[in-house]
Hints:
Strand content: under 5%
Order of helices and strands: HHHHHHHHHHH
Helix content: 55-70%
Radius of gyration: 23 Å
Number of helices: 11
Number of strands: 0
Distance between the termini: 67 Å
Largest sheet: none
Shape: elongated
Structural class: mainly alpha
Amino acid sequence: MKSESSNSWFRKVVTITELYDLPSPHDLLVSPPSKSKWKKLVNPSVNYYWITKLKSEASEKSSLNLLNYADAEFGSIHPIWNTCGSEPYSTLRACIKSKLACNTYTLQCDKSKFSKRQISAICPLCGTEEENRLHFILRCSRLNNVRNSFIQSLKTFIKDVVSTKLYDELFCSEINTLQLIIDCSVFHFLTRGDVFTVECITRGLCFKLHQVRSTLLR
């Protein structure tokens, strides 16, 4: 009795069932399922819709190119948070790491973009090139002392758990090294235990770089 443009509750029920590819309310009235059967039908359908939508939208954002959203599952926790525990200091370090993973950590190239190039994108610490994630995490010479010890710990651990070929691929390419630091879960040859250890090392690296950078800028 209602048109498709109606805001009627009855029309909205039809719209929702169509959105999640669920049986029509007209069919359900004729043969209503039990409560448990209905939950088993609804929950996976709703979860599938939103996780698919999330992945689709994430694939269109270049800022998320280093974040492993492809393996995301409804109800699962990303390793950045799943490995940090609940201790306040660890949570703070995970916040910095997640900002870098989502590319929302403000660096000089971001300030330049936001100011329509009125502000220089050159690194304010070393002055050699634009300060983006790659420069901040792997290249800035003013942060070498902080970076080197963490990178060495990372190399030592990775060398013991992967083949020489994989080791070389990870550390001979800056992009692969950056990926390992930002979100190592994309590398499926690493076990869950390996991911935990790598996350602990890289979380400490990202936070220490953040601390020293902030101190130097002040």
